[in-house]
Design a protein that fits this description.
The protein has 96 residues and is an all-alpha fold. It has helices at 17-27, 32-39, 43-50, 58-68, 72-76, 82-94. The chain has a domain at 17-82: Orthogonal Bundle (434 Repressor (Amino-terminal Domain)).
Length: 96
C-alpha cells in the first residue's frame, strides 16, 4: 500500500542467483577467497556460482547465507515478486 504522495518503487532489473550472491558478497566487501574461508566452499565453486555455471542448491545456499549473514531466500529467489505471485495464485483460485 503506497502512502499518499509516494509511489511504490518499480523493479528495473532481474537478478540471477549468481548475481545475487556476488552483489551481497561485494556489499560486505568480501573477496571470493574471503567468502570461501568463511563458508568452506572452494573459491572456484563460488566463482562458478556467481557466473551461473553451477547451481546454488539448498545446502550451498544455507552455507553461503550463514557466511553472508542473510536469509537463504535472498540468494535463491532474488527476483521473486510477491505481488505477482499473489495475483497469479489468486487468479488460479478464481478460475478453477
Amino acid at each position: 500500500m503506497a502512502r499518499k504522495g509516494f509511489q511504490k518503487a518499480k523493479k528495473n532489473i532481474d537478478v540471477s542467483v549468481g548475481e545475487s550472491v556476488k552483489i551481497i558478497r561485494e556489499l560486505q566487501e568480501l573477496s571470493q577467497n574471503q567468502l570461501a574461508e568463511l563458508s568452506g566452499i572452494p573459491q572456484s565453486t563460488i566463482s562458478a556460482i556467481e557466473n551461473n555455471r553451477v547451481s546454488l542448491g539448498v545446502e550451498r545456499a544455507k552455507t553461503l547465507a550463514r557466511a553472508l549473514k542473510c536469509h537463504p531466500a535472498v540468494l535463491v529467489f532474488p527476483s521473486w515478486n510477491i505481488d505477482l505471485e499473489f495475483v497469479s495464485s489468486n487468479h488460479s483460485l478464481t478460475t478453477s
